[in-house]
Specification:
Chain lengths: 53, 153, 250
Amino acid sequence: MDILAMGGYGYYIWSSFGLGLAVLVITVVQARRHHDAVYREIEQRLKAMEEVK
Amino acid sequence: MLAVGLAALGILVATALTLSAFQENMMFYVEISDVKAGKVPNNRNFRVGGLVKTGSVHREEGEIELSFVLTDTANELTVVYDGVLPDLFREGQGIIAHGRMGSDGNFMADTVLAKHDENYMPPEVAGSLAKQQAANSAATTEETDPATEETTE
Amino acid sequence: MWKFFHKLASPPHFYDLANKIIPWFIVPAILLITYGTIAGLFFAPMDYQQKDAFRIIYIHVPAAYISMMAYMTMAISAGIGLIWRMKLAHAVAAACAPIGAWFTFLALITGSIWGRPMWGTWWEWGDPRLTSELILLFLYFGYLALRAAIDDTSKADRSSAVLALVGAINIPIIHFSVEWWSSLHQGPTIVREGGPAMPMEMLLPLLAMILGFTFFFGAVLLRRLRTEVLYRERRTGWVKRMIQPAGGEA
């Protein structure tokens, strides 16, 4: 419990580290999603072009 | 396209507002010597910075209101404050107070902010350092504190 | 040697190679950040003035460092792209912006959380470092909005590069703001005359976090760079063959 309380600064410290972890996760997830979205977009365009042919 | 244009405009406006808020608050920083000479903005809050004079913090029994002397080592100004103090507030600490002059010549603060220096150390180290230079500690900490440099600039 | 660089700069090879080297960034990043977090939270001694609250330094300072480092990477790449008309350099600049924006946000918010108990305020409008870091966030937003507004990639590259270069003036302002103006921020702790103003057991986790965040930034940058390359090459043969290997690409 002492470790969580951090001498009364627990809320400040844990929220800072929580946000840090959140930003690390968000940047990775966003980068992956962006890649997948671009990939799918190209895939669909190629498919549409084929149908026209 | 229109939405993005609006977003860009919003960012420009936000930047301009931020800069004007910054300038507004910067301009009304007043040196203790100027306060003493009566050179303060009329009917307007301003900021004053300095060190909390050792031994000057004074609080009546059961009162929230406290007073302390702010010093730039040459000039002194009494500050009266009744709000919540930052955890770093202590004697010898560099602080910045927002507020205005009272009719009694004291500075009536509505906010007190604390500065801290670039030194980080464990309490034991700070304790033994303090012991070592106990004799001349008051003089040296005032000389090396960054807050002093600014207030005397 | 030349052959190697040529191969590296060729988009299909870069696309594959980036994927292979990402683990070389992400593994050290995870190790360093894990060590830095545990050592910073539980093993570093508390500060004599700030007590345990000083531990926020282990997230705030690395985030602030990345916010500026990402901007410098973006501005320099944008400059190289403008001068030597290098498409890959423009792609690097475009990939830096969203990551930099997130770390700027993190630096601002953790600074605010740290400022509340220590300084006595969440935010101080008259503070030059807070102001210039907030403007850094706006610069990233402006850069991203400008790119999103222009459909033509090479036009977007050139316009956003100019913005990135003009905005680079803000980086030295953030850095020196605490010396030029009165600020609630203290002077430099790590890099300064007479060595760091911090004992080793506090400093080591901080350096590990900064290095870990840097590796992490590198990993995400490579991942975003792959996407940029893929998008910019979307009409070329290698992308078509990769995405639709059995397609009617006759």
